[in-house]
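Subject: Sanity check before I submit

Could someone independently write out the structure tokens for this chain? I want to compare against mine line by line before I put it in a report. The sequence has 314 residues.
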Amino acid sequence: MNAAWRRALRIAMELAAAFGVLLAFDRLLLDGTAFTGINPNPLWLPVVVMALAYGTFPALAAAAIASILWLALGQEPANERDYLDHLLHLSLPPLLWFMAAVAIGEVTMVRIQRLVRLGRTKNSARRNVERLTEAFHQLVHTNRALQVQVATDERSIGHIIATAARLGDADPAERRAAMVALIALAAQTRDFTCYRLTGGEARAWLRGAGAQARPDTLPAPLLLHAQRRGAAIHVGNAGDRGALDGIGAVALPLTEGDPARLLGVLVLHDLPFAAMGAHLLAELTEICRWLGPLLAEEPCRAAPLALRSPGLVA
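---
Independent answer below. Compare away.
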């Protein structure tokens, strides 16, 4: 049963109870004459109560019931009154009941509608406050997380400057450790190997922390492809996937001079495909610009060193 039917049933039960009690008193006190001679007539009470509590339509129902009871039980012998006076006596109370039902009921309806609107406004304001409170807590949490990230981020300007300053260290191992750290910061991955071209083949020279198990020698097809391309090779290009198959996601030829002379190849072995956007390609191109000259200046080693510098990205 929906709310409208429950409301109608409740009003009907209240009307039945109210008029039942009044009829019981009427029979006990006035022998069932619908309170004739009592002014104001107690049959007003259900009409006024319904009008104040529920509005116009329940009050009209109460006025109709009261009028039926009045017309059925409230008649006096016709010879005791003039005909017009008797007609006025019978019709005046029902007329007043219906007028009161409409007047008071309409005021009540306006009040109820206003209360409903105020309730909706209150609920909307409560929801807005809850949303604002939740958004404020989220902003506080995000701000705290960003502060922690800024304080601990290895890509902060201060950390990058400190790492780059180690490129001028007298210790070759320290310089190579700084290169590894800078490559990891720029490429956003630790799974990479820098292959250096020596005697017709490219052998591993620098490794990230996640590339210790990668091949020591760059496959010849990828080396030839890098020599011909002279630009970034990545799995986003369908023609590059065959050369990169089983090796990595991106290969960056490292060159120097004009015309460009191939010095080595930087291979990013593992990189999310979603990260292969224009921003990352720009970062990788920037790596080629500064890593190529550094590679030319560094003395060649027969084998890659295991870098354990404090500045190495772990």
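---
OP: Matches mine. For the report I'm noting this point. Residues 302-314 have pLDDT under 50 and may be disordered.
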